[in-house]
Amino acid sequence: MTGFGPRVVLVPDLGEDLARAMEELEGLLLILQGAEDEGAALPSPLAGGAALAALRRLWRAVAPTQGRRAAESWLAGRLYGPGLVEHVPLRLVDVDPIDVATLSATARVLGIGAGGVGAVREALESDRGYLSGAELVVAAARISGLLDLADTAESILLRERLAAAGPGADVVLTPAQEAAYQATAMRLDAMWPRR
């Protein structure tokens, strides 16, 4: 991360999994904002809604690339390997490295808060929905890791190929691009395992 403006990253279409995690994380951060409004002292970046604002900006950038949102948008291009084997699509997304760093710090603070006392622990233990508090901490770390994956020659090759094709275009990879896809997909799967 450089912090010098938006960074283009490759994001796999994870269907509704990423959407669900981001929506539930937003719910947790809204609970914490309510606790702060009632006088609870929150650590940075939870204080003042910084984490919530960063998450919302990231979601605005990523949402059109995911699941039904991608299918309903102009970003719904498909990705094929040689022999027309369909792959999980990778899409180009501009993210602000500062927002990604804020989300990473949020995951750390939530992880520490889960074992502590106070508003963070109470929010993590509250009955909010699909994901438990511990699962939300992991989801926050995975989302930030997914959006902060270091560039490799393979990921740069894929970004260039997808950028040349344009948003929403179906792309057929060459054998060299296929090898780059497989290497990049393995790294992305380490951040967010596909089911």
TrEMBL record:
Protein name, entry field: DUF222 domain-containing protein
The organism of origin for this protein: Nonomuraea mangrovi
